[in-house]
Amino acid sequence: MMRNLLATAAALAVCGGAAQAKFTADVVIDGTGISTTDYTSVALQTAGDSCFGTGIRAGELFLANDNANLYVGIAGDLQNDSVYLFFDTLSGGATNVAASPAYGEFEVLAATGGGNMPSGFEVDYIYNLKEFERGLGRWNVQANTANFVGNNWASNVANGAGYKVFTDNSNTTATPWAAGTVSTGIELQIPRTEIGSPSTLSIIRVFLVMGNSGGGGAQNTTYLTNQVLPQSPNVVPACYGRNGSGGGDGPGLNYDATGLNITAASYTLQAAADVSNWYLM
C-alpha cells in the first residue's frame, strides 16, 4: 500500500499532476502487473511484425525508479529470443557501436554497416537479456568492457550485485497493440550504480531492440529485428544479419535516419515524495 501511496504522490508532484515519471519503491519483479500502477509508460508499439513471428513482441516499455534502482517493464513476450536495452545516462558516450567488446551477445550490434545511434543519443550502457536461462549481459560502452550479470533468476530475488530479472511468456497477443492491454512480460531491477549513478531529476534516455537467440539455447544472437521501442516511423526490412548479408536477411541495423530513425524515450529520475504531512483518513 505504501508503494502505491509514494507512486501517487510523486506522480501528482510532477508537471502539475501529469504522471511524467514515477518514484515507486521496491517494484515486485515477477514478470506480471506491468502497468501504470507501478510504472510510467514511455513507449508503445502499434504496428510492424517481428521476423521471428507474431507474439514475440515488445509491445510497451515502462520505467520507474527509487533512490537505489531503475525498474524496467516490457509488456510482451520474449519466448526463445532476446532483447537489447540501450541507455544514455551520462555525458559523453558513443554515437556508434561498430566496435563491440569480446562478448558474443553484443557482436551482432556491430554488424557491417550498422550500429548508428538515434539522433542526439550517446549510448553509455547496453544490456542483453536472453530467454535461455534468462541470461543477462552488460556492456559499459564508454569503458568498452562487458560482463555476464547472471542467469536462472528466481522471481523477485536479487543477485549479489543487486539485480533482479524475471519473465512471463504467457502473452500471445498479435499486432496491433493498444496501451495497457498486456501486463505480463519482462521485468528488470537495475541498480543505478550500474548505469553510471545518474542523479535524481536527471533525464535518462532509453530504447530497445529485439533479437533472436542464435538458433536457440546458449548460442549467441545472430539477427536483430525491426521490433524496437520507441516504434520506428520507417517501413524497413524485418531482419538484420550479423555480418551484413548473413542468411540474406539484410544489412547491419542503424537506429538513426539511415535506418529505423527512432527517437529514444526520455525519463526523469524522480525523488521520493515528501509524505510527512500526509494523513490517512
Short description:
The protein has 281 residues and is mainly β.
Brief descriptors of the model:
single chain; 281 residues; mainly beta; eight-stranded antiparallel β-sheet; five-stranded antiparallel β-sheet; 1 helix; 13 strands; disordered N terminus; disordered C terminus
How would you sum up this structure, described in words?
With 281 residues, the chain is mainly beta. The chain is 4% helix and 28% strand. The strands form two sheets. Strands 4, 5, 6, 7, 10, 11, 12 and 13 form an eight-stranded antiparallel beta sheet that branches. Strand 5 and strand 6 form a beta hairpin. The relative contact order is 0.23. The N terminus and C terminus are likely disordered.
Low-pLDDT sequence parts:
1-19, 243-249, 275-281
Mean pLDDT: 79
Report the span from N to C terminus. Answer: 14 Å
Cα-atom radius of gyration: 18 Å
The number of distinct helices, counting runs of at least 4 residues, comes to: 1
User: What is the H-and-E element order?
Assistant: HEEEEEEEEEEEEE
Biggest β-sheet strands, sense, barrel = 8 strands, antiparallel
- Structural class call reads mainly beta
Number of strands: 13
- Portion of residues in beta strands equals 25-35%
What percentage of residues falls in helices of 4 or more residues?
under 10%
The best one-word shape is globular
Reconstruct the topology from this structure:
Blueprint: H1 2-13, E1 40-44, E2 58-65, E3 69-76, E4 82-88, E5 125-130, E6 136-140, E7 145-150, E8 164-167, E9 185-191, E10 203-211, E11 223-229, E12 239-241, E13 265-268
Antiparallel strand pairs: 1-2, 2-3, 3-9, 4-5, 4-10, 5-6, 6-7, 8-9, 10-11, 10-13, 11-12
